[in-house]
Amino acid sequence: MTRPIIEMKNVAKSFGLFQALHSIDLSVREGEIVVIIGPSGSGKSTLIRCINQLEEHNGGTIIVDGMEVGRGRKRAVLTEVGMVFQSFNLFPHMTVLRNVALGPVRVRGLSWVAAEERAERLLARVGLADQAAKYPAQLSGGQQQRVGIARALAMEPKVLLFDEPTSALDPEMVGEVLDVMQQLAKTGVTMVVVTHEMGFARKVADRVVFMDGGRIVEEGPPDEIFNTPRDPRLRSFLQAVLSH
Amino acid sequence: MVTNAEALSVMSIFDTFLNWKVFVQTLPLLLSGLTTTLTLGVTAIVLGFIGGLVLALVRLYAKTPLRQVAVAYIDVFRSIPILVLLVVIYYALPFVGLRLSSFGAAASALSLVSAAYSAEIFRAGIEAVPKGQFEAAHALGLSPWRLMSDVVLPQALRIVIPPITSNSINVMKDTALASVVAMPDLLKQATQAQALAANPTPLISAAIIYILILMPLVRLVGVFEKRLAVRGR
After folding, report:
1. Which residues from B are below 8 Å from A91, CB to CB?
2. Which pLDDT score, from 0 to 100, does residue B197 have?
C-alpha cells in the first residue's frame, strides 16, 4: 500500500526565461488522494502536466510506477496515468460511448464489443448510462466532464490526474462532478487533483499540497493545512479564497 | 419599331454563335471531350488530395531534412504556372528519356500543383484542431498514427471540405490547359469542331458545358461553408 507510484525529485520546468517549477519534490503513494492548491500561475497545472509528459520537464527526475519518464523516453508507462482536463477535451466527432471505448481498443487491444461493454459500465457509474449514444456537444458541461472521467477510467490507470476539472463549469454543475470524484476516491484509485474547490480538498484529500511561485510551499493533511497553516503565503491565500 | 436589317442581324447572331444544326452535329465530339476532361480532372483531384495529405503530414511532423523537402516542394509548385509546368513535362522531359502521353503529362502537371495547394489546406485544417484534442489523445496513450487517424484527421477533414472543394473546382478548370499538349479534352474538341464547322457554336457550347458542370460545385462550397459556420466546432 505504501509503495510510491509517483516520485518527483528536484523537478524543474521552464518556458523560455520563465521558470514555472523550481526543484519540486513530491511523492504520491498508491491509493493516496493528493490535492494541489495555490493561486493562479503557481505552477499547479504545470506540475501534473509534467507527470504525464504533456509538458517535458527540463530538470530533475520523475518516476511513475517504477520507471523514469520524459526526456526522450518512451511513453509506454504513461498509459498507466489517466488525465481529466479542465476543458474536457472530449472527441467531438465520436459518440460518448466511442469516446470512452477508444483508448481500451487502440491502446489496450480490447475488441470493440468488450470495450463498449466496459464503457457502458463506466458511464453508468458516472450516472450517464442513458447518454451513451449522444455526441459530446449535446451534453451539458457537467455531463461532459463526467464522460471525461469515464474515458480516463476506461484505461484502468494506476493514477488519475485532474487538472482543474470544475473550473470551466457553470456553478450548478460543479457538484455533480465533485460527487463523482468523491465516489471515485473511496474506491482506492490514486488521485492527484489540482483544484480551487477547498471544500473538496478538505473533505476528500489525504494530503494537501500548497504551491506558490512554482514551489511547494507547504504540505500536510487537510486539517493542518486549513486549520493551522504555517506559511504566511498559505495563510493569505486561504484568507482570500475562504473569506466569501 | 424593328427594321428588317435589325431583325436580320439578330438572326445572324444566333446563326453564328448558337447554330442549332452545328450544335447537333458537333455534340458527340464535345461529349467525348467532356469524358476526357472529367477523367483527367478526377484523376488529378484524387492524386492531388492524397499527395497533399502526405505532404502536409511530412511538413508538420517529419524530421528536419525531410520536412524541408516538403516545404521546398510546396513553395516551388505553388509558384510555377501550370501551363509552364505542363509544357516542360510534355516537351522537355522527353530529352531525358521520359516521354509521357498527353494525358500522362496533363495529369502529372495538375496533380503536382494540386498536391502543393492541398498540402497547405490540410496543414491549416490540422492546425485548426484544438490543442486539447492532441493532449487528450496523448493522455490516452494513442500512437501518433492513431492520434492522426482517429482523432485529428476526422476533425481536420471536416474543416477543409470547403477549401478542398474550391481547389477541386480550380483543378477541373485547369484541365482546359491540356488542350495545349494535344489532349482531346472538351476545349480541344470544341476548337477542332469550330474549325471544321467554320462556326463558333461548339466553343459557346463548351463554355456552357463547363459552367453547367462546375456551377453546382461552386454553390456546394457556399453550402458547406454555411453549414460549418452554423454548426461551429
Report:
1. 133, 136, 150-151
2. 83
